[in-house]
Amino acid sequence: MIENEQQLIEAIAEMREEEAFALAKAMLDRGEDPVRVLELCRVAMDIVGKRFENQEYFLPELVLAGEMLENIGAIAKPLIVEKSGGAAKKLGRVLVGTVHGDLHDIGKNIVTFMLDINGFEVKDIGIDVPVAKFVEEIREFKPAVVGLSGFLTLAFDSMKETVHAIEAAGLRDQMKIMIGGGQVDEAVRTYTGADAYGSNAVAAVTLCRDWIAA
Amino acid sequence: MSAGAAAYAERMQRVMDAVELRQPDRVPVAFFSTFWLARYGGISYREAMYDYERLTQITRRAMLELQPDMYALPHLLTAIGPVMEKMGYRQLEWPGHGTAEDVSYQYIDREYMQAEEYDEYLLDPTGFYLHTYLPRIGDAFQGLEELPRFPGLYYLRLVVAARQFARPAVQRSLAALKESGDEATRLVEHADRFADDMAEIGFPLANGATAAAPFDFFADYFRGSKGIMLDMYRRKDKLLAAIERAAIFITRQTIATCRASTSNIVFIPLHWAFDSFMSLAQFKLFYWPSLRKLMLDLIEAGLVPMPLWEGDCTSRLETIADIPRGKAIYWIERADMIRAKEILGDVVCLRGNVPASMLTTGTPEQVDAFCRRLIEKVGRGGGLILDCGIGIPDESKPENVRAMFAAARKYNP
């Protein structure tokens, strides 16, 4: 790896936003492969993810890293021409949404972002999602994992109803269901009939990896 | 002394014994509820938000049944529909205004202050409120945009600038604000009357004012969750300066409000202090110093700060122990209470922390066992107020709530 490339990875991983953007822009201006630049971003995000798992980094770092990726992506992606390597192979499909009655989206957005940069094909169907819409989206998207998000205690019942509806539609055995957010714990997992709960975005990634690799 | 006055004194004594880390006659138990009361009383959430009288009747019934040692007035947390409607309030969605009839109100996380507006806030917070912030968060404030910019006005320019008050948009705002004010007065009169009635039959209030941690103040109500996280990196110095500035106003307001109440306890719900949000180093830089200063100022004014440490704050326990002994209540949502007692037991009274999941999905036997363990292990030597981690969750089973209140009377430290 040439020196510039290492610098870009480091700048992102160390949260030096301006430097990271300037380095990426200089590389693109010099005519380097935009796909390579995005690949370096992904390598940097692996480091960020590891540090998050090790509790060196927290949510502000994930959000700032997301911004850096978005800004670099915005100048790199238009430069990608067909031949410069096809789309990376995705690991598997994950459908994510906040259950009905609950309007919170911060946790869900972070989970979506983390799954996306870790190579999953994620579909985020928004907040306050009615049970029927979950079932309909699952039929169409055919995810391997469904993530139900909710911050309020009212979400316990909404999650339970959503899991039941998925069962009633005959779709339950085709997927794993994970829940997360707010007060969710093992008692809530049992109550809702989900397969697992996660207490942060990295836990969601780990669950999906375990399930989809298995 | 009347029976009511005697009961009031007895409960106050029990609570203050717990706060001041003396062994009370038994562990006090607190009542904090919003929409659980609607379920308990068989009315819709919307009715609880709009019908002052019915909310009063239901709360009275719950109080008489549960016999709490301290309670939070539900009116000011729940029956806010009419005022918000008259104000055209935009930071919440509530039943009939964005959420369904039986879904609780929810805060809309948004940037109510732009990143580039820190300087304006720092220069003149009141001007920023009048001309920029308030018009964004409520229809009734809209016309205030056209008020004069007061600093810089003087002498005859001040006299002539008075014409801006006559502008149609300003007049419309003042009329709408008067209506909102009249409604808010009715609400508060209702709440005060209820508090007086309850005091007369022996029930003291659990808090006399609510405050925000200065960091949360900016995170929640100004910059939004994403904005604040980026600010921690992109404009750290301005964020810290704004926090320091706001803290002065938060402290003054809180002291004035609390002194007008019968309770000297200040409720401070903490939204962004939890372990998995920011690192301990960030907590010590962005969060704790201004919160600690707020608490010290409240203590200095003779008040009892009661932060609710939402989420799991286990990694903060050592840091937050740096507070005068016997002067505060730390309401703990998720941290393990036995560990919290080890670290904080000689310093502050703990409140909590039956899990929300247990009250909503568990059984009375589970609640009883959990409370017994809390009382016997954490209640020893005083310093415990029994409660759920977040007050009574809206969906709690009534038999579980009863089990929690019964446990306080059944078990001894």
Q: Return the domain count of chain A.
A: 2
The top level CATH class name of the largest domain in chain A: Alpha Beta
Strand order of the largest sheet of chain B: 6-7-8-9-10-11
The secondary-structure element order of chain B is HEHHHEHHEEEHHHHEHHEHEHEHEHHEH
Distance between the termini of chain B: 30 Å
**Gross morphology of chain A:** elongated
Going by helix content, strand content and strand pairing, the class of chain A is alpha/beta
Percent of sequence in beta strands of chain A? 5-15%
Fold-level CATH name of the largest domain in chain A: Rossmann fold
| C-alpha end-to-end distance of chain A | 33 Å
List how many beta strands of chain B DSSP finds: 11
Key terms:
heterodimer; A: alpha/beta; Methyltransferase, Methionine Synthase (B12-binding Domains), Chain A, domain 1; Rossmann fold; five-stranded parallel sheet; 9 helices; B: 413 residues; alpha/beta; TIM Barrel; three-stranded mixed sheet
Describe the structure.
- The complex is a heterodimer of chains A (214) and B (413).
- Chain A has 9 helices and 5 strands, in the order H-H-H-H-E-H-E-H-E-H-E-H-E-H.
- Chain A has 214 residues and is an alpha/beta fold.
- Chain A folds into 2 domains: 3-79, Orthogonal Bundle (Methyltransferase, Methionine Synthase (B12-binding Domains), Chain A, domain 1), CATH 1.10.1240.10; 93-213, Cobalamin-binding domain (Rossmann fold, 3-Layer(aba) Sandwich).
- In chain A, helix 5 links the parallel strand 1 (93-98) and strand 2.
- In chain A, helix 1 (3-13) packs antiparallel against helix 2, helix 3 (34-53) packs antiparallel against helix 4 (59-76) and helix 5 packs across helix 9 (201-213).
- The radius of gyration of chain A is 19 Å and the shape is elongated.
- The two termini of chain A are 33 Å apart.
- The relative contact order of chain A is 0.12.
- Chain B is of the alpha/beta class and 413 residues long.
- Chain B has a domain at 3-32 and 206-410: TIM Barrel, CATH 3.20.20.
- Chain B is globular and about 70 Å long.
- The model of chain B has no long low-confidence stretch (mean pLDDT 96).
- Chains A and B meet through helix 4 and helix 8 of A and strand 4, helix 11 and helix 16 of B.
